[in-house]
Amino acid sequence: MKHYYPFQLNWIKNEQINTIYFRSNDIQTDFAVVAYDVNQKSFSKTPFAANSFSPDGKYLAVRDYEAISYDGCEKKYCFKIVQLATGKVVEYFSNQELGEPYGWIGDSGHRYLFKKNYRSLNASEPAENFIYDVETTAIIDQFEGKIINAFRHNNVDYFVSKEYLILNSYEYGKYPNGLKLYRYEK
Amino acid sequence: MNGVSSISLISVFIPYTILINSKKAMTYIRLIFISFLLLQSIDILAQSPLIVKRSEQHSQIEFFTDLDAAPIFEYGSEDLNIFTVEVSNAPEALVALVEKDKNYPYGSSHLTVFNRTGTILHQEDSVLEFSWNTVGNALVLTKGEKNPDGLDHPKSWKIIDFS
Question: Final residue of a domain: which of A95, A118, A150?
Fold first, then answer.
């Protein structure tokens, strides 16, 4: 990586691939994501500006500001999940009914987490979480409560391995609070 | 009937006597029992998630295997500024912790990697960014150098394998 100045590192390793994806401010890469094959020790420029690959590297989540064009989206807000092998868009999320795209759920297959109202200060609007399954293109789980994995809770931060979620399970106005640990199996 | 009873009594009594009277045998039994308990606790540690809690002042972390249990390990000091923590996906759940200089929060950092019992496996200075691989047994990091603009820029990178 002599002439690259990498940032936004993302290392996908499984039985099929062992690739480090990164962005580079090098002018030759045109700000596209660069792939480094760890086994072959070789670089290649990808056609993507996004670097949120599923844990197995088969899908890519593209936020609106990372999209090269808004093709297929009517509104500016256009979050989409793309299957890399075919280049096809699995699904467009052209409104914010599911809230904000947050990220892939660790080693759980192809499941993506959306969070809604988690920044809301309005106590009448509890935080909602949606788990979207790419294989079935359906919401497979929905629950209220603030996900506090790596987020502040009672003035402390909790971190847990990526296949787990810590959920603050309290409902607004109801006590006692309780922390729950969720694990999403493949 | 009496013969059968006496035979079964003898078959139980003799090994029992040997065991009780033999210090070596008792030591072996104790060792086997302790090994069994140790293996069980290692198995529980390897299967359970590792939860890391960072204190309000970002100066201390604690490792838990259960949200309601006491911490199994603590690390930190008053001077520490723990910028971020990343728990890997490996079954042994390695923990990478990044400390930043309080007086220069935008600069490069000091990285420390722990295993789940709190043993330090690796330390690295001048780290700008890092990422665990999805298996969780190796990480890639970029190292920075101070540029004339006063900011640290990535200049090199490194892969550290813990497998």
Answer: A95
